[in-house]
Amino acid sequence: MKNTRGRKRRNRRRIILICKIVICLAICVGVVFGLKAAAETVLRKESKIILKPVDTEMREGEKVPEIKANITVEGDQETVLDKKSGKTVGDLADELKRGENYEVVCGTDGKTEGKFSVKIVLKKEIEKKLQEEWKRKVSIQTETSTLLVKNAMGDWEGKKFKKTDGQYAVNEFLKLKDGTYYFDENGEKVTGKKTIGIKECVFSEEGKLQSEKFVGIDPSKPMIALTFDDGPGAEAGRILDVLEKYNARATFFMVGPRVNTYPETVKRIAELNCELGNHSTNHPKLTLLDAAGIQKEIQTTTDAIAKATGGKKPTVMRPPFGAVNETVKQTVGLPIIMWSVDTLDWKTRNTQATIDSVLKNAKDGSVILMHDIHKPSVDAAVQLIPKLIEKGYQLVTVSELAEARGIHLENGVKYSQFYR
Question: Are 249 and 400 in contact (CB under 8 A)?
Fold first, then answer.
């Protein structure tokens, strides 16, 4: 009996010892696996996703293109970022490839030539996850690229400039971002001093225009004054483009509201040394107004022109409908310019009819009346300017034509032609 109780106690002690050993082993195994898992977590290399915008090119004035980003992944794409959804690094990369979770930012509207930085901006939600729950699992590296806005007119090829139409600039001025250049008959930019048309120009060693001055008009050669009324029109810039190309000039008789609508065109008219003319504000018959009314019509437009040009004022005027009386003469305060060739372009609205009218009726000393507010008239002018120059005419302003004929323009006096 006594031996039996002793064996039972010994058996219980053995069982307890065995249990303790098993528990200890289990704890040790758990610790080992826990340490291993922890070590793997600590030692696991963080995955990296790299976003780089694609380098892009465009021309000035075009719509800024949608810029894509290239996505590359370094590290384990199977790393789980969200246990509940099972989202992995690879899934995040796929979202980015679809253009999600970020935007591409570019510091230009595409209207100015130059190189502009393009960068990636992550959404705040993604930034937060990267700093918190995804920390040490994945990082996103954003890089920058460049949007090259190329000159709207073309590209340099050595000393030559190839325009967007595929033609090289020849015998013409080009205004580029960094300066104004002139290209000779061989298409090469000019350096040093060169007389171009009636201008004496000086260019730097790089070909940039440094100074220019008119060297006068040849009085022995025929000349014509092209004049444009009622503008500036929406397409008047096309006329200015051709005048600039051929070193020609014209006189623009403008009305106040259109001056306010197209101040940049008025400014350019002045910059090209074309003549600023006043054509009233509301285009009334000035003969139906009293002196105060006439003065207001003229002064309002003069002020608008001065504002647009930085202080330059009209030097001549043309009364609407050609209506003049003594009150008009005594009040306008400017030489009154009529015309010798009326193209009737306002009536025909026909390009060829206008061209034919000028070529048939114009002669040395003529003052030609046209309107730059009608597209057919603008189309006609664009063709007429080189045609008249080919015929040997110098295209000058009304004041230049008068001076070449030895006539001093006087305020309140009418002039319609300057024949020899």
Answer: yes
Cβ neighbours for 326, distance < 8 A, ≥ 6 positions apart: none
pLDDT (tens digit per residue) in 224-278: 999 999 999 999 999 999 999 999 999 999 999 999 999 999 999 999 999 999 9
3 state DSSP class of 267: helix
Candidates 230, 345, 371, 379; catalytic one? 371
What is the layout of strands, in order, in the sheet containing 209-214?
192-196, 199-203, 209-214
| Three-state SS at 112 | coil
Maximum Cα interatomic distance, the chain, rounded to a whole number of Å: 159
Half-sphere exposure (Cβ direction) of 34: Cα atoms closer than 13 Å: 6
Residue 309's CB: how many other CB atoms inside 10 A?
A: 19
**Active-site annotation holds for 229:** yes
Q: Please give the Cα distance from 344 to 186 (Å, whole number).
A: 40
Q: Is 377 helix (H, G, I), strand (E, B) or coil?
A: helix
63-80 pLDDT, tens digit each: 999 999 999 999 999 999
Q: Whose CA is closest to 324, among 313, 339, 314?
A: 339
3-state secondary structure 286-352: HHHCCHHHHHHHHHHHHHHHHHHHCCCCCCEECCHHHCCCHHHHHHCCCCEECCCEECCHHHHCCHH
Owner of token pair 């106040």: 256
Report residue 280 as tokens. 């009233």
Query: 285 φ, ψ to 5°?
Result: -75, 110
User: CA–CA separation, 18 vs 186, rounded Å?
Assistant: 105
Contact by Cβ (8 Å): 374, 348: no
Cα-atom radius of gyration of the chain, to the nearest Å?
A: 40
- The pLDDT-based confidence of 12 (bands split at 50, 70, 90) is confident
Based on the residue annotation, tell me whether 371 is a catalytic residue of this protein: yes
Query: What are the tokens at 375?
Result: 């597209």
Mean pLDDT of the 22-28 span: 70
pLDDT digits (tens, 9 = 90+) for 292-327: 999 999 999 999 999 999 999 999 999 999 999 999
- Count of Cβ atoms closer than 10 Å to residue 384 Cβ: 26
Q: How confident is the model at residue 217 (pLDDT cuts 50, 70, 90)?
A: confident
